[in-house]
Inverse folding.
């Protein structure tokens, strides 16, 4: 299974990269961004599927959010946008923030067909771009906030609010 | 390593926490890092940094920025001052002796600080952060008397639905009974911070740690000795408890007001609500702020 996933990531991350972006360059910048985003999201979702067994929290939502925020920020150099390490680093940071056990970086590097050193460099860039603001509102946190807004006259709601 | 520094640009006095990343497995970084391999930004500091960044409240320490170069991490936060534990130990015994004027002042100070402690905890809980390390050492006193919450190394965002979490959180003396009794992966949430806050409260008033156990069992015994052995364990804790609990001596609950000399009745009532065994019946930070103990004007009187 791993080998299969590896091939798929390789083809979308690297092979597809050049073909699709080359096409996109002819069009306006909005669609370039859209295609980069599509590829990045694709890679993150694939990584999520590989590590699905270990993942419990909001990792997928968080990593997609990091990716999107970096992509639209001005500080991220444009040449980093397209590299395969960028979505992988977003995923890596999200697992660190959210999960009990984080994936081993060397395995992640093999899966995304890059080196651990490149991933670490990218991790640093992503962290700096996001300036360590790594807790956006996700759906499950929103539910918690909604419950705390509910009137606390009902006993069961209060019990829920007690546990956030 | 923690150093104080002053910005040449803004003139702001800040505290820098400098962390050298361990290239090999050694010291306290070993539990997160896989054998030898460089795993990038250490998880515990990443969590600490981003949780502090997520907070914006006068009673929570502000993290200004983070730098990360060549395996060295520097967390720049605002400079606050002494922590509460050091402050308490700097006061002489006279302050904690009954019927002295200085003791009266400590009681006022306790109320004044406790209100801020609860405000900070309430804010963190309202945005979904579980602190898991509330203790006097993690509250810093600024020069204008504001208390700032810090120590986010063990904190995390709460999960929905509740997931079993690790047991190795909260300094033992401030650890809630549901964590000690909950097995290897107990399910716990916000009320553990309230328990710790209750212990902090008692420590501010008496100058001594409320429950000072040397081991987990010792800690439990200390708790039961003061608050009484729970009669019907499964009812008191809402989960399965180990069977050895039945073998413990059956202590009767002692009077908290005797232990906390001089504290007014409202204060004792608040503390007893914070130290309830059942996590769901324990008072929340928000309700605690509405408690009669905090009603009225309690500005600090200078001595």
């Amino acid at each position: 299974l791993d080998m299969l996933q590896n091939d798929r990531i390789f083809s979308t991350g690297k092979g597809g990269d050049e073909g699709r972006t080359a096409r996109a360059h002819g069009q306006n910048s909005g669609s370039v961004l859209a295609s980069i985003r599509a590829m990045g999201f694709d890679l993150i979702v694939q990584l999520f599927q590989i590590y699905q067994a270990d993942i419990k929290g909001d990792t997928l939502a968080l990593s997609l959010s990091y990716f999107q925020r970096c992509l639209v920020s001005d500080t991220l150099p444009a040449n980093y946008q397209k590299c395969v390490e960028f979505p992988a680093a977003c995923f890596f940071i999200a697992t660190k923030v959210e999960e009990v056990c984080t994936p081993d970086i060397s395995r992640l590097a093999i899966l995304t067909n890059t080196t651990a050193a490149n991933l670490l460099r990218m991790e640093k860039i992503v962290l700096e771009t996001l300036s360590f603001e790594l807790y956006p509102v996700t759906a499950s946190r929103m539910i918690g906030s909604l419950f705390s807004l509910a009137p606390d006259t009902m006993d069961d709601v209060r019990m829920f609010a007690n546990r956030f | 390593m923690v150093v104080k520094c002053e910005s040449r640009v803004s003139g702001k006095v800040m505290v820098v926490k400098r962390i050298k990343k361990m290239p090999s497995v050694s010291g306290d970084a070993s539990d997160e890092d896989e054998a030898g391999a460089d795993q990038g930004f250490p998880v515990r500091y990443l969590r600490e940094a981003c949780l502090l960044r997520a907070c914006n409240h006068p009673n929570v320490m502000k993290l200004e920025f983070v730098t990360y170069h060549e395996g060295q991490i520097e967390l720049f936060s605002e400079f606050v001052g002494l922590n509460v534990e050091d402050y308490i130990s700097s006061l002489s015994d006279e302050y904690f002796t009954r019927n002295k004027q200085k003791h009266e002042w400590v009681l006022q100070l306790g109320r004044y600080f406790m209100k801020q402690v609860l405000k900070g905890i309430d804010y963190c809980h309202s945005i979904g952060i579980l602190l898991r390390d509330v203790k006097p050492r993690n509250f810093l006193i600024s020069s204008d008397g504001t208390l700032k919450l810090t120590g986010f190394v063990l904190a995390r965002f709460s999960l929905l639905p509740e997931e079993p979490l690790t047991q190795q959180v909260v300094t033992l003396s401030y650890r809630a009974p549901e964590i000690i009794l909950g097995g290897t992966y107990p399910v716990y949430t916000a009320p553990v911070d309230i328990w710790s806050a209750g212990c902090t409260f008692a420590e501010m008033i008496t100058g001594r740690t409320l429950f000072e156990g040397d081991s987990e069992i010792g800690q439990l015994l200390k708790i039961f000795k003061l608050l009484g052995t729970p009669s019907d364990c499964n009812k008191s804790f809402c989960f399965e408890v180990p069977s050895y609990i039945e073998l413990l001596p059956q202590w009767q609950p002692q009077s908290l007001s005797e232990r906390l000399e001089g504290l007014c009745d409202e204060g004792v009532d608040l503390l007893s609500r914070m130290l309830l065994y059942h996590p769901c019946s324990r008072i929340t930070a928000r309700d605690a702020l509405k408690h009669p103990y905090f009603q009225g004007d309690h500005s600090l009187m200078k001595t």
Summary: Residues 101-126 of chain B form the longest helix (26 residues). The mean pLDDT of chain B is 80.
